[in-house]
Amino acid sequence: MEPKRKTAILIISDTASEDPTLDRTAGALAPILAREGKWEPPAIRIVPNNISQIQQAVCDWSDGSYWYDLVLLSSTTGFGVKDNTPEAVTTLIHRHVPNLFHDMVAETLKVTPSTKIARPIGGIREKSLIITLPGYPKGAMENLEAVLKLLPHAFLQNSRLLHTSGIKRVQNETGVTISPQLQHHHQHAHDHGIQKEHISPSDKSQSKPKGVAEGTDRRCPNYARPMASVEEALRIISERTPASTEVDTPVTTSIIGSVIAEDIYAAELVPAYRSSIIDGYAITVEEGKSTKGVFLIASFAHGKVSGALDPLKPRTVARVTVGAPLPPNANAVVMVEDTASSTIDGQEEAVVEILADDIVPGENVREPGSDIGLNSKILARGDLISPAEIGLLAATGTRTVKIFKKPRVGVLSIGDELVEHSDPCTLVGGQIRDSNRPSLLSCLASWGFETVDLGIARDPSSSLEHSLHVSLRGIGRVSSSVDVLVTTGGLSVGNIDYNTIIERSLGGTIHFDRVFMKPGMSTTFATVTLKATETDAAAKDAQQEHHTSKLLFSLPGTPSSALLTLNLFVLSSLHKLAGLGESSQAIVTKPWIAPQLGLPRVAVVLTHHFHLDPKRTEYHRAVVTGSRSDGRLYATSTGVDAIGQPSPRIGSLAKANALVVLRPGRGVGIKGEIVEALMMGPIHGSDTRIIC
């Protein structure tokens, strides 16, 4: 006896999600499944018409080790604005089964004409069969009964157990005739250990697409787009990077590295009271009168004093420390060095002698607001928050600020050959450690951006498509969506499949898929527009449809190329998203202090000859050292051979703090020549002058 299969029913309804007693569909479907005797009692969940919640529920039931064989979704799938189920499910399906719905629609049309305007959808995800049903009990029951008898055999096909005998059994039990053409692959003998080539060499030559030159292997990537220059690529990235998002946030140390989104004005005076700038004695000075003489010490004021101080009486002073408030009528402070006093047993006496005769009003006094006036501008839109800015905000009593929200970045490695760097296994065959992902994540974190480790996606298109989709949408094991998705690997060969997933499955736009540079030529940049979730659009007008643009950078698989292109292309986009491109008018008028997007550019002197590529600009990994003797910056390669610096050489990145820009040419870059460099890290100091 075959074991019963697990089923799940997802009810998608805004009203039923608030009051589950309003749902009638789950109760109508459960008896139909029970009557067949082949299904376990269904798991039932109710969610609102929200794409993210629908997808999360489907992934919970189809992904991982505890999966359900059959997942039924009951929802309106018509033309309504909130009929989101078809769109939510489509991107989750690995293999579609349209014929199943043709039969379902044909049967239900006999009793329900409105089925013509429904948009049913479904298919296989991992090992689960997903089917959408109407959102009302009668329609859901009719649709399920139309295909229910065929479903057990669909699972046999999904597990590849349906051979000739199984086909005949399906035909006998369901009355469905399977075309002989569909049985083609099971007509041969079952000696699966012998490989047979079904296409002759002459057929191969005839099947070559038009426009492909003779001798060209069809397995090679067929790039439909022209190769972009580095300058073009950076311009495209800047144009396609969305505007920065402004958020209100408390003033804490967590906003270090963020960018101010609006001009900020002081809420309080600094200092808030008249205070002393030295240790000494507060005194009341009258114009034209001497301050020399013996004075009675009336009080002692320090920075911790609370409450009001009493005014000074004639011929009295107050002992004060730096920053301490002054008595109301005190207008000067005499420094300790200008006084004399005697002590008894280490205790200061109650009087002090002032030796100076020329103390004037205002001497050694800091007036209220003399540092920062009330309502004066303290920070401008576009200012980068450093520890000094945190101190300024705290000093003026600023509790919240508006900043540009930093983007959230996910990193995904692609490749069947990849093994986790922490896996203790011994590598076999063509396996390699995944060094790119921890390297890229560490680099992003050092820049101050929130990162998400998305793991490894294997090469089959369904696995890659799923990984890209859940990362951008924030479903499955990814708790929330990322703003920027960075992938690495899997691009040097098979680029057509990757581009197809981006454009057709994700609905994205590829803006370039090659850059004329060395290394890093196989860099891809795309944007994917997604419908915003209800949370994203909460502050917007509910009557409008909102969309959000996600950025996708596909970086090469070689470690040096991946990290290089992250610095060169991804960083400039992250800077713009974080608001570094937003500067106030004050900064615009002073371009020398305006924040720069991407890596800072400097001029360096070559300490030796550098090999030049005859066609492409090379971004050469190097160590830049600053000479303390002549103040110049010098660049030394981290490693070269007879033909330059190979991109697979991972050791060349270990100590590099710069990318030396070597323009194409014949021969070498001459020792002592001045060229441009992009700084990836701090400059190393040197005590001696470097002789070139």
TrEMBL record:
This is molybdopterin adenylyltransferase. In the N-terminal section; belongs to the MoaB/Mog family. SMART domains: MoCF_biosynth. It comes from Penicillium arizonense. The keyword Transferase applies. Residues 8-154, 410-576 form the MoaB/Mog domain. CDD domains: MoeA. Catalyzes two steps in the biosynthesis of the molybdenum cofactor. In the first step, molybdopterin is adenylated. Subsequently, molybdate is inserted into adenylated molybdopterin and AMP is released. GO terms for cellular component: cytosol. GO terms for molecular function: ATP binding; metal ion binding; molybdopterin adenylyltransferase activity; molybdopterin molybdotransferase activity.
